Amino acid sequence: MDPVLLVVSIMVSATPILLAAIGELVTEKAGVLNLGVEGMMITGAVMGFAIAVTTGSPTLGFLGAAVASAVLSLSFGILTQYLLSNQVATGLGLTLVGLGLSALIGSNYEGQRAPSLPKLDIPLLGDIPVAGRMLFSHDFVVYLSLALVVAVWAFLKFTRAGLILRAVGEDHESAHALGYKVVRVRMAAIAFGGACAGLGGAYVSLVRVPQWTEGMTAGAGWIALAIVVFASWRPLGVLIGAYLFGGVTVIQLNLQAAGTTVPVELLSMSPYLITIIVLVIISARGSHGAPGSLGRPFHAAS
Amino acid sequence: MIRLERRPQPSRLWTGLTPILAVVLTMIVGGIMFAALGKPPLEAIRTIFWDPLFHPQFAGYSRPQLLVKAGPLILIAIGLSIGFRAGIWNIGAEGQYIMGAVTGAAVGLAFYPSDSVLLFPLMVVAGALGGWLWGMIPAVLKTKFGTNEILVSLMLVYVAENILASASSGWLRNPEGQGFPGSRNFKQWPAVFNDELVANTGMHWGVLVAFVAVIGAYVLMARHIQGFNVRLTGEAPRAARFSGVSPARIVFLCLGISGALAGMAGLFEVTGPAGQISIDFGSGYGFTAIIVAFLGRLNPFGILAAGLLMALTYIGGELAQLMLGLPGASIQLFQGMLLFFLLATDVFTNYRVRFARKEVA
Questions:
Q1: Which of A43, A247, B37, B169 has the largest count of CB atoms under 10 Å?
Q2: ipTM for the complex?
């Protein structure tokens, strides 16, 4: 198989998960466990598709998907941050709502084709023989996802706001005592996570497939959650995890297409099995740097 | 200025009231949604909640369906609720349900065409065992390596779906089915067909077992030391450890029970209402049961009521699809909203709402 094509397809299949995972990383760094990634992704997928088909502009589709999923994620935020509901249950609820909502909206769009997203050929770099086509001729969302990883890394490591966000996630009582607005920081982190998941979902329906079918994210949101654990809450780890997973998916699909003797079902389940195995290996190593207040509700007594 | 004040103990009044409030809120927002879809809102609500039981023409068909749909939901939700009480989040019941059906059906089909009366009980045991084993995977990984059971149990749903696909198109395919996917039809095999026990009630063995599970779960949680340990682990994990409750045992107990019950639900479904192993056997009961467990306040009798209500929305949703052309997905959204509103209104159960003027510091 053509190595250029292989790398390109790995990048395409990794991008949705990378986007969703980097968003969830920020949310979790702020101490919020949002299990609704799958619901936000599928909402982004359907909204992005619907907007892109209606307006003819994939860029507007991505924008709309990010906004729609961010709004949806704020419903999770209001429930968990202001009404102090259980984060696990609310996240599951968000996934169920998102799946229902997307199926409802998407029923009018089935069978249509999305307008294609133009490739962004970077001058000079794109002209380098093999590596140019491999790395420097993708659509803008691929670059955006990579830029986001760097931006999140720099934000968490070097900025004051990033430090506050980490403080809120590490120990919300202390952060509150220091006068930081725990709930506001968390709402912002949740919205960012939602927007990223929406972008990821839209990438599935606008670039990877590019069509709308019900339940098309097929667990990508859950895999994004697993990748955050795999990454030990580090942006670079998320990048590695998403690309590894993208690699497994592409190889698995290529094997299916090549018609090996391995049963198709075994190949299709392999990404999920590998995710489990990786999770086990990571958790067996012990301490893995989860934020101290992850998943715990915060209620200021005064 | 609105302030929330934590109650020393959850309000019993609100515990009972919030599900009703959530249903009413869902009806209102759902009605608005139906209106936005261009459907008459009141008629849609009536079609979903009233007509399945009392419509002169359709009720005869849809009333028995109530138990058929509620049976698996209740059985799965009862198992899940025990884990949720202990803070063990098994969200892969759908996978355990599928594996129970596949294992039980495989054991049964191995003896085809036996007409022994022992075969059906054997299949039930095999189904429970299949679900139990599928639930044991996250349990073992959690206790041995500390792996997150939420993600593992969920990933295993996708694995189970692929096993189901390979069973229905491969190793369990009906040899007399002209090559079509799908196993032999259990409805044509009287020895193992899980038929209605009383005609036109929808009551089959699975529903009966679900009722027994409700009582069993009540006894376990309210009267048995293990049930107490489960609750203690959920409410005060440190206290539980100090009093000698082994966290690992609780994990095994909770995931084991929920896996076995979900597996049994799958077996009763495949030998009864579904009739055969087919590629679309997984119907989402495992996920809807999560809503049922919460809506029933993780209380066995509450789950009984919630399961019946959720079954009603399934049947009513189908009816509304037929009569009003309501999209099938809207009922899924309806169920999701129900959980959302329940979690939102639950703030009243755990907190007192105080209206106070902002004090001067």
A1: A43
A2: 0.86
